What does this fold into?
Amino acid sequence: MKILFLHTLASNIALFKPLAAERFPQHDLHHDLQEDFLTDIRKYGQNTMSTQAIHDYLNTQINMGMDYIVCTCSTLGPVVDSFPSECVFRVDKPMAQLCKHYQTMLVLVTLESTIEPTRQLLESQSNSTNFVFQLIEGAWEHYASGDVDAFNQCIVDGVGVSLRQDHSFQAIVLAQASMMSAAPLISKDLQLSNVIPVLTSPEICLSYLAEHLN
It folds into this structure.
């Protein structure tokens, strides 16, 4: 099988490449960087032109023989959802499907353009769950510049503030794939192991993909 991971930031290639290679050594894996897709939506919002450009790209990749395409950028989620193929899906959808098991969830984001696409996705998968969103100001700049340690610490600090203010959360969602490496730090630093699960999209998505490949 030929599997393409569509990224909008080079840092996500570094994140997904080893994970995918370990999980799918027998498959033909590809990683492609399209930074303009995210840049345009952040600047102009999702519109007809940006949607058409992304759909044209996806059609081209399928025509070139890709069996599955995984979009690792949450901001592009609604555009990917509108593409008419079950072989193309967003990285955060399998994670969103698990949210129905919780009544109240803290949803952390580090990029403002991610909030609405993530909200729409989560509510479409679980309309009975109370999702509380928190934008962690300043964190994204660290990730974009390659300072993952500072990025993770911002996330840990943000979770700590929220949990001190509200003790009702049953689970935590790290909305963006880029936030995955902060999950073990949250559990360790805030002593949440076996208390509050921290959901991240990359591993859940790869497990979902593995089921389809089998």
About this structure: The mean pLDDT is 93. Strands lie at 2-7, 28-33, 68-71, 88-90, 104-109, 130-135, 171-174, 198-200. The chain has ten helices and eight strands. The first helix runs from residue 10 to 23.
